[in-house]
Specification:
The chain is an alpha/beta fold and 430 residues long. It is built from 14 helices and 15 strands. An 8-stranded mixed β-sheet has the order 3-2-1-4-7-8-9-10, with helices on both faces. Strand 11, helix 13 and strand 12 form a beta-alpha-beta unit.
């Protein structure tokens, strides 16, 4: 097959490599010339993505993968066009901003040829594939969906750092606008993916047809929104436990020993491109989902709540030296999308603290570019807040933070025994 992958980001590039490794001709298209040049020049764009560097090198050496900025080079004659363009969400209104995806879809339509399957993998509000992309593609191409070309929705379900493993581990969900489109999507993904044996699943691992694009759209929103709501519940329990001398982690461990309880871990923030964003997309089509809105607001409030607790212990934070440990939204991942570092720093600054940031994955220059003053372990500090559960912080000791008066461990990542004699606040630890 000839496959076009639209947007060569942290998901699109591994997908392009995966398709090429399956023996197909892949042309990646991206509006960023720097991104295209990096792919063609074998520049390592995502060094923490396991297997990507070697996979990209192999795909380039075999000639099965190349990148371009021109849709007219990638789309005409393609058997399949896979779209993984980011969808932005307004942080205030929670409304989706389709600008980038609209532009990409219009460009695809301009060069679309008969016989092509267009598969959207970007997470979308329910109804978007049928109600927005189908008419846009038809109008721009002059072709009829369902006869001249086909459209399907098949959400990406992978995590940064383990994309290739997740492609094998999880069923590939698809939903077509027609039965013929669904059949094309099934044939395509079965040709480019291999799946692990999963005896724990109710049916064989592989491509799962959910019947409609709307069902596939909802499945992706539901599985990620579940996690946000679950974390919100865990945070609610943690706030109560912490104010009543109860260790919520023992409570959660006890609850989860029973097979019908799956309470997640509480924490200072929920970050990343998915969990804090997709509940907002769901709410755009189901505004009466109060439980989802409440959980999202509670999770978003956690940085302010923990900084407020710190101020309750230390008093006025004005002039105090504070460090936020971890810029990344998740341990071991060099990515700051919706990271809790931003509201944590803001909450400290609003109280007059002198705030600096440390992260073992980021250089000082990179932290400065993010708007932070960098901190080096061993420098004087009054207050430290663990925002990211990096492995390096598990062995953190007071001696590394001279003058420390309070450690706020927002991830319960540090060793309590190492902090004997130094105040240590852990959400929900009593």
């Amino acid at each position: 097959m000839r496959i076009a992958v639209v947007a060569l980001g942290k998901i699109g590039l591994p997908l392009a490599v995966q398709f090429a490794a399956s023996g197909h001709e892949v042309i990646g298209v991206d509006v960023s010339k720097a991104t295209v040049d990096a792919v063609n020049g074998l520049t390592e764009s995502y060094p923490h993505e396991a297997g990507l560097a070697d996979g990209l090198r192999a795909a380039r050496e075999t000639g099965r993968l190349r990148a371009t900025t021109e849709y007219g080079d990638a789309v005409p004659g393609a058997d399949v066009v896979v779209v993984v363009v980011p969808l932005m969400v307004d942080d205030t209104t929670w409304e989706p901003d389709f600008t980038w995806m609209d532009d990409a879809t219009a460009s695809i339509a301009q060069h679309l040829t008969a016989g092509t399957l267009v598969s959207y993998e970007t997470t979308l509000p329910v109804g978007t594939t049928r109600g927005r992309w189908k008419p846009m593609l038809e109008q721009g191409s002059g072709l009829a969906e369902g006869s001249d070309f086909h459209v399907a929705f098949s959400p990406e379900r992978v995590l940064t750092g383990r994309v290739f493993a997740d492609l094998r581990k999880y069923p590939k969900l698809i939903g077509g606008l027609t039965e013929a489109g669904a059949a094309r999507a099934r044939d395509f993904y079965e040709a480019v993916l291999e799946f692990d044996e999963r005896p724990d699943l109710p049916r064989a691992n592989g491509v799962w047809d959910l019947g409609t694009a709307e069902a596939a759209e909802m499945a992706k929103l539901a599985e990620t929104t579940y996690r946000d709501v679950n974390i919100g519940l865990a945070n609610q329990f943690a706030l109560f436990a912490g104010s009543n001398g109860i260790d919520v982690y023992q409570v959660i461990e006890a609850c989860n020993s029973q097979p019908f309880s799956h309470i997640h871990r509480p924490g200072i923030a929920v970050g990343g491109h998915c969990i804090p964003v997709y509940p907002r997309l769901y709410l755009t089509t189901d505004p009466d989902a109060d439980i989802i809105r409440t959980a999202r607001n509670l999770n978003a409030s956690m940085p302010e709540r923990l900084v407020s607790q710190a101020a309750g212990i230390l008093g006025d934070l004005s002039g105090m030296k504070a460090v936020v440990l971890g810029a990344s939204y998740r341990g071991g991942v060099k990515e700051t999308a919706f990271s809790g570092v931003f509201p944590t720093v803001e909450a400290l600054r609003s109280r007059g603290a002198e705030v600096r940031v440390h992260d073992p994955l980021y250089s000082d220059d990179e932290l400065v570019a993010l708007g932070f003053a960098p901190y080096g372990l061993g420098e004087q500090v009054d207050l430290a807040i663990v925002q990211t559960d990096h492995a390096a912080y598990r062995a953190l000791e007071p001696a590394q933070l001279p003058g420390i008066r309070l450690l706020v461990d927002g991830r319960n990542a540090t060793d309590a025994a190492a902090w004997t004699g130094t105040p240590r606040l852990v959400v929900g630890a009593g």
